[in-house]
Design brief:
Two copies of one chain form a homodimer. By secondary structure, chain A is of the alpha/beta class. Chain A has ten helices and eleven strands.
Protein backbone atom coordinates (compact mmCIF):
# COMPACT_ATOMS: atom_id res chain seq x y z
CA UNK A 1 0.00 0.00 0.00
CA UNK A 2 2.83 2.36 0.88
CA UNK A 3 4.31 1.82 -2.58
CA UNK A 4 0.95 2.49 -4.22
CA UNK A 5 0.49 5.70 -2.24
CA UNK A 6 3.97 6.88 -3.20
CA UNK A 7 3.19 6.17 -6.83
CA UNK A 8 -0.12 8.01 -6.60
CA UNK A 9 1.52 11.05 -5.01
CA UNK A 10 4.25 10.99 -7.64
CA UNK A 11 1.63 11.03 -10.42
CA UNK A 12 -0.29 13.85 -8.75
CA UNK A 13 2.86 15.91 -8.40
CA UNK A 14 3.77 15.31 -12.01
CA UNK A 15 0.31 16.40 -13.16
CA UNK A 16 0.70 19.59 -11.09
CA UNK A 17 4.08 20.31 -12.69
CA UNK A 18 2.58 19.75 -16.16
CA UNK A 19 -0.26 22.17 -15.42
CA UNK A 20 2.13 24.84 -14.15
CA UNK A 21 4.52 24.37 -17.08
CA UNK A 22 1.81 24.46 -19.76
CA UNK A 23 0.13 27.52 -18.25
CA UNK A 24 2.89 29.61 -19.86
CA UNK A 25 2.04 28.30 -23.33
CA UNK A 26 -0.69 30.08 -25.30
CA UNK A 27 -1.57 27.44 -27.89
CA UNK A 28 -0.96 23.71 -27.95
CA UNK A 29 -1.28 21.81 -31.21
CA UNK A 30 -1.06 18.04 -31.77
CA UNK A 31 -0.13 16.77 -35.24
CA UNK A 32 -1.32 13.27 -35.90
CA UNK A 33 -2.50 10.83 -38.53
CA UNK A 34 -4.24 7.51 -38.79
CA UNK A 35 -1.65 6.02 -41.11
CA UNK A 36 2.13 6.20 -40.84
CA UNK A 37 4.44 7.65 -43.47
CA UNK A 38 2.15 10.49 -44.52
CA UNK A 39 4.59 13.26 -43.58
CA UNK A 40 3.63 14.23 -40.02
CA UNK A 41 7.21 14.99 -38.99
CA UNK A 42 7.99 16.90 -42.21
CA UNK A 43 4.88 19.01 -41.55
CA UNK A 44 5.53 19.46 -37.82
CA UNK A 45 9.08 20.74 -38.42
CA UNK A 46 8.15 23.08 -41.25
CA UNK A 47 5.02 24.38 -39.50
CA UNK A 48 7.13 25.19 -36.42
CA UNK A 49 9.55 27.25 -38.51
CA UNK A 50 6.70 28.92 -40.42
CA UNK A 51 5.23 30.08 -37.10
CA UNK A 52 8.68 31.27 -35.96
CA UNK A 53 9.06 33.28 -39.17
CA UNK A 54 5.77 34.98 -38.35
CA UNK A 55 7.37 36.20 -35.13
CA UNK A 56 6.04 33.67 -32.64
CA UNK A 57 7.88 31.74 -29.92
CA UNK A 58 7.61 28.05 -30.75
CA UNK A 59 8.46 24.70 -29.15
CA UNK A 60 8.41 21.31 -30.88
CA UNK A 61 7.81 18.16 -28.83
CA UNK A 62 8.65 14.89 -30.60
CA UNK A 63 6.03 12.57 -29.09
CA UNK A 64 7.00 9.60 -31.25
CA UNK A 65 8.90 7.56 -28.69
CA UNK A 66 9.59 4.45 -30.76
CA UNK A 67 10.37 6.25 -34.04
CA UNK A 68 11.63 9.74 -33.14
CA UNK A 69 12.79 11.59 -36.27
CA UNK A 70 12.54 15.30 -35.46
CA UNK A 71 16.27 15.83 -34.61
CA UNK A 72 17.36 14.09 -37.81
CA UNK A 73 14.98 16.11 -39.96
CA UNK A 74 16.12 19.50 -38.64
CA UNK A 75 19.78 18.58 -38.20
CA UNK A 76 19.66 18.93 -34.41
CA UNK A 77 22.70 17.52 -32.65
CA UNK A 78 23.68 17.23 -28.98
CA UNK A 79 22.04 16.18 -25.75
CA UNK A 80 19.81 18.32 -23.56
CA UNK A 81 21.14 18.99 -20.06
CA UNK A 82 19.35 19.35 -16.73
CA UNK A 83 19.42 22.49 -14.57
CA UNK A 84 19.91 22.58 -10.79
CA UNK A 85 16.21 21.85 -10.22
CA UNK A 86 16.51 18.69 -12.34
CA UNK A 87 14.46 20.25 -15.11
CA UNK A 88 15.47 19.53 -18.70
CA UNK A 89 16.71 22.45 -20.83
CA UNK A 90 15.43 21.85 -24.39
CA UNK A 91 17.91 22.04 -27.25
CA UNK A 92 17.45 24.88 -29.76
CA UNK A 93 17.89 25.01 -33.52
CA UNK A 94 17.36 28.39 -35.19
CA UNK A 95 15.41 29.55 -32.09
CA UNK A 96 13.08 26.51 -32.17
CA UNK A 97 13.02 24.72 -28.79
CA UNK A 98 13.02 20.97 -29.31
CA UNK A 99 12.73 17.88 -27.14
CA UNK A 100 12.96 14.34 -28.53
CA UNK A 101 13.86 10.96 -27.08
CA UNK A 102 16.26 10.69 -30.04
CA UNK A 103 18.46 13.35 -28.41
CA UNK A 104 18.62 11.27 -25.24
CA UNK A 105 19.52 7.78 -26.49
CA UNK A 106 21.91 6.29 -29.11
CA UNK A 107 20.46 6.52 -32.62
CA UNK A 108 20.51 2.79 -33.47
CA UNK A 109 19.11 1.53 -30.18
CA UNK A 110 15.60 0.10 -30.45
CA UNK A 111 13.26 1.68 -27.91
CA UNK A 112 11.47 -1.39 -26.60
CA UNK A 113 9.20 0.33 -24.13
CA UNK A 114 5.65 -0.71 -23.41
CA UNK A 115 2.85 1.86 -23.28
CA UNK A 116 3.08 2.98 -19.61
CA UNK A 117 6.81 3.75 -19.89
CA UNK A 118 6.28 5.68 -23.14
CA UNK A 119 3.50 7.66 -21.45
CA UNK A 120 5.80 8.50 -18.52
CA UNK A 121 8.42 9.83 -20.93
CA UNK A 122 5.80 12.08 -22.53
CA UNK A 123 4.59 13.34 -19.15
CA UNK A 124 8.20 14.33 -18.41
CA UNK A 125 8.45 16.14 -21.74
CA UNK A 126 5.38 18.15 -20.76
CA UNK A 127 6.13 18.73 -17.08
CA UNK A 128 9.91 18.69 -16.69
CA UNK A 129 11.13 20.51 -19.81
CA UNK A 130 11.80 24.25 -19.40
CA UNK A 131 9.65 25.45 -22.30
CA UNK A 132 9.28 28.92 -20.84
CA UNK A 133 6.80 31.35 -22.40
CA UNK A 134 5.66 30.06 -25.79
CA UNK A 135 3.06 31.12 -28.33
CA UNK A 136 2.85 27.63 -29.78
CA UNK A 137 3.85 24.17 -28.61
CA UNK A 138 3.62 21.66 -31.46
CA UNK A 139 3.54 17.94 -30.62
CA UNK A 140 4.48 15.51 -33.39
CA UNK A 141 2.63 12.29 -32.49
CA UNK A 142 3.18 8.73 -33.74
CA UNK A 143 0.60 7.32 -36.19
CA UNK A 144 -2.55 5.58 -34.99
CA UNK A 145 -4.61 6.02 -31.87
CA UNK A 146 -2.44 4.35 -29.24
CA UNK A 147 -0.95 5.24 -25.85
CA UNK A 148 1.09 8.29 -26.88
CA UNK A 149 -1.89 9.93 -28.55
CA UNK A 150 -4.16 9.31 -25.56
CA UNK A 151 -1.57 10.52 -23.07
CA UNK A 152 -0.88 13.70 -25.04
CA UNK A 153 -4.60 14.46 -25.42
CA UNK A 154 -5.23 13.97 -21.72
CA UNK A 155 -2.15 15.65 -20.26
CA UNK A 156 -1.38 18.34 -22.84
CA UNK A 157 -5.00 19.41 -23.38
CA UNK A 158 -4.36 20.70 -26.94
CA UNK A 159 -6.62 23.40 -28.38
CA UNK A 160 -6.04 22.14 -31.91
CA UNK A 161 -5.52 18.80 -33.62
CA UNK A 162 -4.16 18.67 -37.17
CA UNK A 163 -4.58 15.39 -39.01
CA UNK A 164 -2.16 14.76 -41.86
CA UNK A 165 -3.37 12.49 -44.63
CA UNK A 166 -2.37 11.50 -48.13
CA UNK A 167 -5.16 11.46 -50.75
CA UNK A 168 -5.19 7.66 -51.12
CA UNK A 169 -8.28 5.83 -49.91
CA UNK A 170 -6.50 3.73 -47.28
CA UNK A 171 -4.96 6.81 -45.66
CA UNK A 172 -8.35 8.53 -45.68
CA UNK A 173 -10.00 5.62 -43.86
CA UNK A 174 -7.36 5.86 -41.16
CA UNK A 175 -7.78 9.65 -41.04
CA UNK A 176 -11.47 9.18 -40.39
CA UNK A 177 -10.58 7.15 -37.29
CA UNK A 178 -8.06 9.80 -36.19
CA UNK A 179 -10.56 12.64 -36.74
CA UNK A 180 -13.27 10.81 -34.82
CA UNK A 181 -10.84 10.28 -31.98
CA UNK A 182 -10.02 14.01 -31.89
CA UNK A 183 -13.76 14.72 -31.75
CA UNK A 184 -14.28 12.22 -28.96
CA UNK A 185 -11.42 13.80 -27.00
CA UNK A 186 -13.19 17.17 -27.30
CA UNK A 187 -10.33 19.02 -28.98
CA UNK A 188 -11.78 22.45 -29.91
CA UNK A 189 -10.30 22.91 -33.39
CA UNK A 190 -9.73 20.01 -35.76
CA UNK A 191 -8.15 20.48 -39.19
CA UNK A 192 -6.97 18.26 -42.05
CA UNK A 193 -3.90 18.80 -44.26
CA UNK A 194 -3.48 16.78 -47.46
CA UNK A 195 0.15 15.87 -48.05
CA UNK A 196 1.74 14.20 -51.10
CA UNK A 197 -1.03 15.78 -53.12
CA UNK A 198 0.17 15.15 -56.66
CA UNK A 199 3.73 14.97 -57.90
CA UNK A 200 5.52 16.63 -60.83
CA UNK A 201 7.91 14.47 -62.91
CA UNK A 202 11.27 16.26 -62.68
CA UNK A 203 12.03 15.18 -66.28
CA UNK A 204 8.90 15.99 -68.29
CA UNK A 205 6.79 18.07 -65.90
CA UNK A 206 3.87 15.64 -66.09
CA UNK A 207 1.63 15.79 -63.01
CA UNK A 208 1.51 12.30 -61.55
CA UNK A 209 -1.29 11.55 -59.14
CA UNK A 210 0.75 9.09 -57.17
CA UNK A 211 -1.71 8.80 -54.33
CA UNK A 212 -4.71 10.41 -56.03
CA UNK A 213 -5.72 13.98 -55.22
CA UNK A 214 -8.36 16.03 -53.40
CA UNK A 215 -9.47 13.29 -51.00
CA UNK A 216 -8.43 15.31 -47.95
CA UNK A 217 -10.70 18.23 -48.73
CA UNK A 218 -13.71 16.02 -49.44
CA UNK A 219 -13.03 14.09 -46.25
CA UNK A 220 -12.85 17.32 -44.18
CA UNK A 221 -16.21 18.45 -45.58
CA UNK A 222 -17.78 15.07 -44.90
CA UNK A 223 -16.50 14.98 -41.32
CA UNK A 224 -17.36 18.63 -40.67
CA UNK A 225 -13.82 19.70 -39.76
CA UNK A 226 -11.52 22.44 -41.10
CA UNK A 227 -9.56 21.95 -44.31
CA UNK A 228 -6.21 23.67 -43.96
CA UNK A 229 -4.62 23.08 -47.38
CA UNK A 230 -2.58 20.70 -49.47
CA UNK A 231 1.14 20.14 -50.01
CA UNK A 232 2.50 18.41 -53.12
CA UNK A 233 5.15 15.72 -53.01
CA UNK A 234 8.59 17.11 -53.74
CA UNK A 235 11.83 15.18 -54.12
CA UNK A 236 13.87 18.17 -52.99
CA UNK A 237 11.98 18.38 -49.71
CA UNK A 238 12.61 14.69 -49.08
CA UNK A 239 16.30 15.00 -49.90
CA UNK A 240 16.77 18.06 -47.72
CA UNK A 241 14.86 16.39 -44.86
CA UNK A 242 17.29 13.45 -45.10
CA UNK A 243 20.10 16.02 -44.78
CA UNK A 244 18.47 17.74 -41.83
CA UNK A 245 17.32 20.93 -43.56
CA UNK A 246 13.60 21.89 -43.47
CA UNK A 247 12.55 23.38 -46.81
CA UNK A 248 11.16 26.52 -45.14
CA UNK A 249 14.59 27.42 -43.78
CA UNK A 250 16.31 26.70 -47.08
CA UNK A 251 13.98 28.18 -49.66
CA UNK A 252 11.17 30.29 -48.31
CA UNK A 253 10.04 31.24 -51.82
CA UNK A 254 9.50 27.65 -53.03
CA UNK A 255 5.88 26.73 -53.83
CA UNK A 256 5.83 24.16 -51.05
CA UNK A 257 7.18 26.66 -48.47
CA UNK A 258 4.56 29.19 -49.50
CA UNK A 259 1.84 26.59 -49.08
CA UNK A 260 3.03 25.65 -45.61
CA UNK A 261 3.27 29.33 -44.60
CA UNK A 262 -0.32 29.84 -45.81
CA UNK A 263 -1.43 26.92 -43.65
CA UNK A 264 0.49 28.43 -40.70
CA UNK A 265 -1.37 31.74 -41.15
CA UNK A 266 -4.70 29.94 -41.23
CA UNK A 267 -3.81 28.25 -37.94
CA UNK A 268 -2.75 31.58 -36.39
CA UNK A 269 -6.09 33.10 -37.44
CA UNK A 270 -8.12 30.20 -36.08
CA UNK A 271 -6.37 30.23 -32.71
CA UNK A 272 -5.85 33.98 -32.20
CA UNK B 1 -5.91 -11.33 -4.13
CA UNK B 2 -8.63 -13.60 -5.49
CA UNK B 3 -9.01 -11.30 -8.47
CA UNK B 4 -5.27 -11.31 -9.07
CA UNK B 5 -5.13 -15.11 -8.91
CA UNK B 6 -8.01 -15.38 -11.37
CA UNK B 7 -6.22 -13.04 -13.69
CA UNK B 8 -2.99 -14.98 -13.40
CA UNK B 9 -4.75 -18.26 -14.14
CA UNK B 10 -6.53 -16.69 -17.10
CA UNK B 11 -3.19 -15.54 -18.56
CA UNK B 12 -1.62 -18.94 -18.02
CA UNK B 13 -4.53 -20.66 -19.73
CA UNK B 14 -4.34 -18.26 -22.63
CA UNK B 15 -0.62 -18.89 -23.05
CA UNK B 16 -1.33 -22.64 -23.08
CA UNK B 17 -3.99 -22.19 -25.77
CA UNK B 18 -1.56 -20.08 -27.84
CA UNK B 19 1.11 -22.76 -27.59
CA UNK B 20 -1.32 -25.51 -28.63
CA UNK B 21 -2.74 -23.45 -31.48
CA UNK B 22 0.63 -22.39 -32.88
CA UNK B 23 2.07 -25.95 -32.69
CA UNK B 24 0.09 -26.69 -35.87
CA UNK B 25 1.83 -23.88 -37.77
CA UNK B 26 5.17 -24.67 -39.44
CA UNK B 27 6.55 -21.16 -39.95
CA UNK B 28 5.68 -17.86 -38.33
CA UNK B 29 6.81 -14.61 -39.91
CA UNK B 30 6.44 -11.08 -38.56
CA UNK B 31 6.48 -8.17 -41.02
CA UNK B 32 7.51 -4.92 -39.46
CA UNK B 33 9.24 -1.59 -40.00
CA UNK B 34 10.67 1.26 -38.04
CA UNK B 35 8.76 3.92 -39.95
CA UNK B 36 5.12 3.92 -40.97
CA UNK B 37 3.85 4.19 -44.53
CA UNK B 38 6.59 2.07 -46.10
CA UNK B 39 4.22 -0.59 -47.47
CA UNK B 40 4.13 -3.27 -44.77
CA UNK B 41 0.49 -4.16 -45.41
CA UNK B 42 0.88 -4.14 -49.20
CA UNK B 43 3.82 -6.53 -48.78
CA UNK B 44 2.12 -8.74 -46.17
CA UNK B 45 -0.97 -9.25 -48.36
CA UNK B 46 0.97 -9.93 -51.55
CA UNK B 47 3.52 -12.18 -49.84
CA UNK B 48 0.66 -14.24 -48.37
CA UNK B 49 -0.84 -14.78 -51.82
CA UNK B 50 2.58 -15.49 -53.35
CA UNK B 51 3.09 -18.29 -50.80
CA UNK B 52 -0.43 -19.59 -51.49
CA UNK B 53 0.34 -19.68 -55.23
CA UNK B 54 3.38 -21.84 -54.43
CA UNK B 55 1.00 -24.38 -52.90
CA UNK B 56 1.28 -23.54 -49.21
CA UNK B 57 -1.45 -23.08 -46.61
CA UNK B 58 -1.26 -19.50 -45.34
CA UNK B 59 -2.83 -17.35 -42.63
CA UNK B 60 -2.55 -13.56 -42.32
CA UNK B 61 -2.87 -11.92 -38.90
CA UNK B 62 -3.40 -8.14 -38.97
CA UNK B 63 -1.56 -7.11 -35.79
CA UNK B 64 -2.09 -3.39 -36.34
CA UNK B 65 -4.84 -2.76 -33.82
CA UNK B 66 -5.15 1.02 -34.16
CA UNK B 67 -4.73 1.18 -37.96
CA UNK B 68 -5.93 -2.19 -39.35
CA UNK B 69 -5.91 -2.12 -43.17
CA UNK B 70 -5.61 -5.75 -44.30
CA UNK B 71 -9.35 -6.33 -45.00
CA UNK B 72 -9.59 -3.14 -47.06
CA UNK B 73 -6.49 -4.01 -49.09
CA UNK B 74 -7.69 -7.49 -50.05
CA UNK B 75 -11.38 -6.62 -50.35
CA UNK B 76 -12.38 -8.81 -47.40
CA UNK B 77 -15.93 -8.23 -46.18
CA UNK B 78 -17.98 -9.75 -43.38
CA UNK B 79 -17.50 -10.57 -39.71
CA UNK B 80 -15.84 -13.70 -38.34
CA UNK B 81 -18.11 -15.94 -36.22
CA UNK B 82 -17.36 -18.08 -33.18
CA UNK B 83 -17.81 -21.86 -33.01
CA UNK B 84 -19.45 -23.78 -30.14
CA UNK B 85 -16.15 -23.73 -28.19
CA UNK B 86 -16.07 -19.94 -28.43
CA UNK B 87 -13.14 -20.05 -30.83
CA UNK B 88 -13.07 -17.56 -33.71
CA UNK B 89 -13.35 -18.90 -37.25
CA UNK B 90 -11.12 -16.70 -39.46
CA UNK B 91 -12.61 -15.25 -42.62
CA UNK B 92 -11.16 -16.47 -45.92
CA UNK B 93 -10.44 -14.66 -49.16
CA UNK B 94 -9.15 -16.80 -52.03
CA UNK B 95 -8.13 -19.49 -49.52
CA UNK B 96 -6.15 -17.02 -47.38
CA UNK B 97 -7.27 -17.17 -43.73
CA UNK B 98 -7.43 -13.68 -42.27
CA UNK B 99 -8.06 -12.12 -38.87
CA UNK B 100 -8.18 -8.35 -38.30
CA UNK B 101 -9.74 -6.07 -35.71
CA UNK B 102 -11.17 -4.16 -38.70
CA UNK B 103 -13.52 -7.11 -39.38
CA UNK B 104 -14.82 -6.88 -35.81
CA UNK B 105 -15.58 -3.16 -35.35
CA UNK B 106 -17.18 -0.38 -37.46
CA UNK B 107 -14.74 1.06 -40.00
CA UNK B 108 -14.83 4.71 -38.82
CA UNK B 109 -14.59 4.02 -35.11
CA UNK B 110 -11.31 5.10 -33.53
CA UNK B 111 -9.71 2.26 -31.58
CA UNK B 112 -8.67 4.10 -28.44
CA UNK B 113 -7.12 1.18 -26.61
CA UNK B 114 -4.06 1.44 -24.42
CA UNK B 115 -1.22 -1.07 -24.78
CA UNK B 116 -2.44 -3.84 -22.42
CA UNK B 117 -5.84 -4.06 -24.16
CA UNK B 118 -4.19 -4.15 -27.59
CA UNK B 119 -1.89 -6.93 -26.38
CA UNK B 120 -4.89 -8.94 -25.11
CA UNK B 121 -6.55 -8.66 -28.52
CA UNK B 122 -3.39 -9.99 -30.16
CA UNK B 123 -3.14 -12.86 -27.68
CA UNK B 124 -6.69 -13.81 -28.66
CA UNK B 125 -5.79 -13.68 -32.34
CA UNK B 126 -2.99 -16.15 -31.61
CA UNK B 127 -4.76 -18.44 -29.16
CA UNK B 128 -8.47 -18.31 -29.95
CA UNK B 129 -8.54 -18.19 -33.76
CA UNK B 130 -8.98 -21.56 -35.50
CA UNK B 131 -5.96 -21.32 -37.82
CA UNK B 132 -5.76 -25.10 -38.25
CA UNK B 133 -2.71 -26.60 -39.97
CA UNK B 134 -0.72 -23.89 -41.74
CA UNK B 135 2.59 -23.74 -43.55
CA UNK B 136 2.95 -20.02 -42.91
CA UNK B 137 1.35 -17.54 -40.54
CA UNK B 138 2.21 -13.97 -41.52
CA UNK B 139 1.71 -11.18 -38.96
CA UNK B 140 1.44 -7.62 -40.28
CA UNK B 141 2.65 -5.44 -37.39
CA UNK B 142 2.21 -1.70 -36.77
CA UNK B 143 5.28 0.53 -37.29
CA UNK B 144 7.75 1.16 -34.50
CA UNK B 145 8.82 -0.95 -31.56
CA UNK B 146 5.81 -0.67 -29.25
CA UNK B 147 3.46 -3.01 -27.39
CA UNK B 148 2.09 -4.96 -30.37
CA UNK B 149 5.56 -5.75 -31.65
CA UNK B 150 6.76 -6.90 -28.23
CA UNK B 151 3.65 -9.00 -27.60
CA UNK B 152 3.87 -10.68 -30.98
CA UNK B 153 7.56 -11.45 -30.56
CA UNK B 154 7.03 -12.94 -27.12
CA UNK B 155 3.80 -14.87 -27.70
CA UNK B 156 4.07 -15.84 -31.37
CA UNK B 157 7.77 -16.77 -31.26
CA UNK B 158 8.34 -16.05 -34.96
CA UNK B 159 11.15 -17.85 -36.80
CA UNK B 160 11.55 -14.96 -39.21
CA UNK B 161 11.29 -11.16 -39.09
CA UNK B 162 11.05 -9.17 -42.32
CA UNK B 163 11.74 -5.46 -42.04
CA UNK B 164 10.25 -3.28 -44.77
CA UNK B 165 12.04 -0.04 -45.52
CA UNK B 166 12.06 2.62 -48.19
CA UNK B 167 15.49 3.75 -49.45
CA UNK B 168 15.32 7.21 -47.83
CA UNK B 169 17.75 7.93 -45.01
CA UNK B 170 15.07 8.57 -42.37
CA UNK B 171 13.36 5.23 -43.05
CA UNK B 172 16.74 3.48 -42.90
CA UNK B 173 17.50 4.96 -39.47
CA UNK B 174 14.20 3.60 -38.19
CA UNK B 175 14.90 0.23 -39.86
CA UNK B 176 18.17 0.01 -37.99
CA UNK B 177 16.22 0.29 -34.74
CA UNK B 178 13.72 -2.34 -35.93
CA UNK B 179 16.50 -4.72 -37.02
CA UNK B 180 18.34 -4.32 -33.74
CA UNK B 181 15.11 -5.08 -31.90
CA UNK B 182 14.64 -8.28 -33.95
CA UNK B 183 18.20 -9.27 -33.06
CA UNK B 184 17.66 -8.55 -29.39
CA UNK B 185 14.48 -10.66 -29.45
CA UNK B 186 16.55 -13.56 -30.83
CA UNK B 187 14.49 -14.08 -33.99
CA UNK B 188 16.44 -16.70 -36.02
CA UNK B 189 16.11 -15.23 -39.51
CA UNK B 190 16.04 -11.49 -40.17
CA UNK B 191 15.60 -10.05 -43.65
CA UNK B 192 15.16 -6.61 -45.22
CA UNK B 193 12.95 -5.70 -48.21
CA UNK B 194 13.35 -2.33 -49.94
CA UNK B 195 9.99 -0.97 -51.06
CA UNK B 196 9.26 2.12 -53.19
CA UNK B 197 12.65 1.53 -54.76
CA UNK B 198 12.53 3.95 -57.69
CA UNK B 199 9.48 5.03 -59.66
CA UNK B 200 8.83 5.19 -63.42
CA UNK B 201 7.01 8.30 -64.76
CA UNK B 202 3.89 6.93 -66.50
CA UNK B 203 4.16 9.71 -69.10
CA UNK B 204 7.81 9.76 -70.18
CA UNK B 205 9.26 6.59 -68.65
CA UNK B 206 11.88 8.55 -66.69
CA UNK B 207 13.09 6.68 -63.60
CA UNK B 208 12.48 8.95 -60.65
CA UNK B 209 14.36 8.18 -57.46
CA UNK B 210 11.61 9.49 -55.26
CA UNK B 211 13.06 8.09 -52.06
CA UNK B 212 16.56 7.30 -53.35
CA UNK B 213 17.58 3.74 -54.15
CA UNK B 214 19.72 0.84 -52.91
CA UNK B 215 19.81 1.91 -49.26
CA UNK B 216 18.07 -1.27 -48.11
CA UNK B 217 20.71 -3.59 -49.51
CA UNK B 218 23.60 -1.55 -48.09
CA UNK B 219 21.84 -1.45 -44.73
CA UNK B 220 21.31 -5.24 -44.71
CA UNK B 221 25.02 -5.79 -45.40
CA UNK B 222 26.02 -3.34 -42.70
CA UNK B 223 23.70 -4.93 -40.12
CA UNK B 224 24.64 -8.47 -41.15
CA UNK B 225 21.10 -9.57 -42.02
CA UNK B 226 19.55 -11.07 -45.18
CA UNK B 227 18.61 -8.86 -48.10
CA UNK B 228 15.47 -10.26 -49.70
CA UNK B 229 14.93 -7.92 -52.66
CA UNK B 230 13.42 -4.64 -53.79
CA UNK B 231 10.02 -3.59 -55.06
CA UNK B 232 9.52 -0.44 -57.14
CA UNK B 233 6.73 2.06 -56.51
CA UNK B 234 3.81 1.50 -58.86
CA UNK B 235 0.67 3.63 -59.17
CA UNK B 236 -1.36 0.64 -60.37
CA UNK B 237 -0.52 -1.34 -57.22
CA UNK B 238 -1.62 1.59 -55.06
CA UNK B 239 -4.87 2.04 -57.01
CA UNK B 240 -5.71 -1.66 -56.90
CA UNK B 241 -4.89 -1.80 -53.18
CA UNK B 242 -7.37 1.05 -52.64
CA UNK B 243 -9.92 -1.09 -54.50
CA UNK B 244 -9.10 -4.19 -52.47
CA UNK B 245 -7.23 -6.18 -55.13
CA UNK B 246 -3.65 -7.34 -54.40
CA UNK B 247 -1.50 -7.05 -57.54
CA UNK B 248 -0.42 -10.70 -57.33
CA UNK B 249 -4.01 -11.89 -57.72
CA UNK B 250 -4.72 -9.47 -60.55
CA UNK B 251 -1.59 -9.64 -62.67
CA UNK B 252 0.83 -12.37 -61.77
CA UNK B 253 3.04 -11.51 -64.77
CA UNK B 254 3.63 -7.87 -63.80
CA UNK B 255 7.21 -6.97 -62.89
CA UNK B 256 6.21 -6.15 -59.34
CA UNK B 257 4.38 -9.47 -58.90
CA UNK B 258 7.37 -11.36 -60.20
CA UNK B 259 9.62 -9.55 -57.75
CA UNK B 260 7.36 -10.39 -54.82
CA UNK B 261 7.15 -14.04 -55.92
CA UNK B 262 10.95 -14.16 -56.08
CA UNK B 263 11.12 -12.81 -52.52
CA UNK B 264 8.53 -15.43 -51.45
CA UNK B 265 10.69 -18.22 -52.92
CA UNK B 266 13.75 -16.90 -51.08
CA UNK B 267 11.77 -17.01 -47.84
CA UNK B 268 10.58 -20.57 -48.55
CA UNK B 269 14.18 -21.64 -49.16
CA UNK B 270 15.47 -19.98 -46.00
CA UNK B 271 12.80 -21.55 -43.80
CA UNK B 272 12.48 -25.00 -45.40
Amino acid sequence: MKFQNDKLRENEERDKRIKKNLAKIRHKIVIFSGKGGVGKTMFSCNLSYALLKDGFKVGLLDADITGPNVPKMIGLKGQPVANSEEEIIPLQKERLKVISIASLIPSDAPIIWRGPLRSTALSQFLGDVVWGELDFLIADLPPGTGDEVLTMAQKMKPDMAIIITTPQEIALTDSRRATNMAKRLNISHIGIVENMSGFICPECGYKIELFGRGGGKKEAEKLGVLYLGDIPLNIKVRERADEGIPIILEDDKADISQRIRKIARKIEEILN
